[in-house]
């Protein structure tokens, strides 16, 4: 079981903008994820919690507000989703991540 992001990095102007990414599972199991950011001041991520179904890419949006240029990262923790889980935030609170992927974020001038 694996998870990857496409594109694997985020490059946005320091003046702000958005970047669209897809989370894709390489396995046949439904995954649940939680996204953490190293910079919650300049970035907003939608959604923070969610599911990735096998064969169905999951869209995430990285939005940056105006701020000083710097390098940051997203850490996406994931694990197998319980079959009866409906609320990803509540379900993830009771689970331990089995993997993590990182999306480097670069704000440029």
UniProtKB/TrEMBL annotation:
<dbReference type="InterPro" id="IPR008962">
    <property type="entry name" value="PapD-like_sf"/>
</dbReference>
<dbReference type="InterPro" id="IPR000535">
    <property type="entry name" value="MSP_dom"/>
</dbReference>
<dbReference type="InterPro" id="IPR013783">
    <property type="entry name" value="Ig-like_fold"/>
</dbReference>
<protein>
    <submittedName>
        <fullName>MSP domain-containing protein</fullName>
    </submittedName>
</protein>
<dbReference type="Pfam" id="PF00635">
    <property type="entry name" value="Motile_Sperm"/>
</dbReference>
<dbReference type="InterPro" id="IPR051774">
    <property type="entry name" value="Sperm-specific_class_P"/>
</dbReference>
<feature type="domain" description="MSP">
    <location>
        <begin position="2"/>
        <end position="109"/>
    </location>
</feature>
């Amino acid at each position: 079981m694996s998870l990857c992001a496409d594109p694997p990095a985020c490059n946005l102007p320091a003046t702000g903008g958005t970047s669209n990414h897809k989370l894709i599972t390489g396995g046949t199991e439904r995954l649940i994820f939680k996204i953490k950011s190293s910079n919650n001041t300049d970035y907003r991520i939608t959604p923070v919690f969610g599911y990735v179904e096998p064969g169905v890419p999951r869209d995430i949006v990285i939005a940056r507000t105006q701020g000083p240029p710097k390098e940051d990262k997203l850490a996406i923790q994931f694990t197998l989703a319980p079959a009866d889980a409906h609320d990803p935030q509540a379900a993830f609170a009771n689970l331990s991540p089995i993997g993590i992927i990182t999306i480097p974020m670069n704000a440029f001038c």
